[in-house]
Amino acid sequence: MALSQAANLIEKVLGDKPTSVTADEDAIHHDGPTHLACTWNGLKSVKMQQVPLPKVVDPQDVLVNVTGSTVCGSDLHLYKGGILQLKKGDVLGHEAMGVVADVGAEVKKVKKGDRVVIAFSVGCGTCQYCKEGLTTMCENTNGSKLQEELWGDNLSGIQGYSHFLGGYSGCQSETVRVPYGDLNTLVIPDSVPDEKALYLSDIVCTSYHNVVDTGFEKGQTAAIWGAGPIGLHVAQWLTKVFGASKVVILDMVPSRLELAAKEFGVETIDISKLPSGQTPSGAVREIFPSGVDVAFDTAGFTYAQSFVHKAMMAVGLETDSPEVLNEAIKATRKFGRVGIVADYAALANGFNIGALMEKGIKLMGNGQAPVQKYWQKILDDYIIPGKFRPEIILTHRFKIDECDKVYDAFDRKVFDDDKGVGLMKCFLETKHSAPRAEGTPALSGVPQ
């Protein structure tokens, strides 16, 4: 791409980013029934509002009373204005489960009263990609022209994730409408509590997809960049299910690294404590002199480290930083593999393409995970038998009423002194929720 073309593309991307606005108490007008939802109102501004109650508007719709949702790192991309085409009043949230309240006339697999998990992505079930089980590549649920121009194709819609991803109302709410409900919901047996089932909506399947799609094999070694919920779940899959011989995980949050070492027996590297002059890849090489077989990027585009990349992102010379990828490539053995499940948006400067080519590294964009392809198998083969514990990353339980405070706390990386742990993954309960499952975090206020 010529420099002028790249500049024009970045200008278009940045020009379509949301800008700061003043929250308006009367932004959403309604005359009929309402429900409580978390809405986007500008940069670092979300608000709990009463918004119109969703209805069945298509014969394939499923209406779900939400019993559990969450806030995650991907939601912070929205909060910080890093996702395109947000509109004031958009209801946020892409991970949830609940009880079916109503169904359209053509829905056959679920019925009123069923407990269901909701897929974060919206597949239609009839296009070529959906028929292949690749629901996040659905050709019929997202009409964003900007996405097509940026990437050459459109991905599927995503619940509660801006008009760049279809404009669907989100799940950080008391009720949500699920289009194509037979495909995009999974019935959960009563033996599996919400706290174990909820994360099938995204991160459990996303982490599994990262491992499977990258082609990890038993006995291989791995390095994971990022010890957030996805990275920790990747570590759990590698050590508890896929038979990795040795794994190292890199992050800057001590409590997360401690959890990884304690629960999964992995090596840990605190990037913030590396000796002067040592790089993350150099630290990995001290443990694996020849490099790891597979590296996993679960950190993503927002983690610029150097002043140069922070400055370029600030002034719009790039949308993404390639630093994590460059380090992962350097830490990977010759003819090894690097899998990217973390979010990247558009363009990055200074990508080490020479190392990629000359070392024979296979760099794989894993894409947004097609959870509908995996969730039944994961539920039956791993969660129900206890071979995989989704709730291991769950640190807090809050009321949905405090969702706006949760965003702020996550953004500030608040450490909860009472619990002795930082916020990592929370369970947001609503008026429809069942009592918490034994052994999961008790309801508390949002730490300040």
Automatic annotation (TrEMBL):
Signal peptide: none annotated. GO terms for molecular function: oxidoreductase activity; zinc ion binding. InterPro entries: ADH-like_N, ADH_Zn_CS, GroES-like_sf, NAD(P)-bd_dom_sf. It comes from the Eukaryota. Its cofactor is Zn(2+). Residues 59-182 form the Alcohol dehydrogenase-like N-terminal domain. Transmembrane segments: none annotated. Keywords: Metal-binding, Oxidoreductase, Zinc. Gene3D superfamilies: Medium-chain alcohol dehydrogenases, catalytic domain, NAD(P)-binding Rossmann-like Domain. SUPFAM superfamilies: GroES-like, NAD(P)-binding Rossmann-fold domains. Pfam families: ADH_N. PANTHER family: DEHYDROGENASE, PUTATIVE (AFU_ORTHOLOGUE AFUA_5G03930)-RELATED, ZINC-TYPE ALCOHOL DEHYDROGENASE-LIKE. This is GroES-like protein.
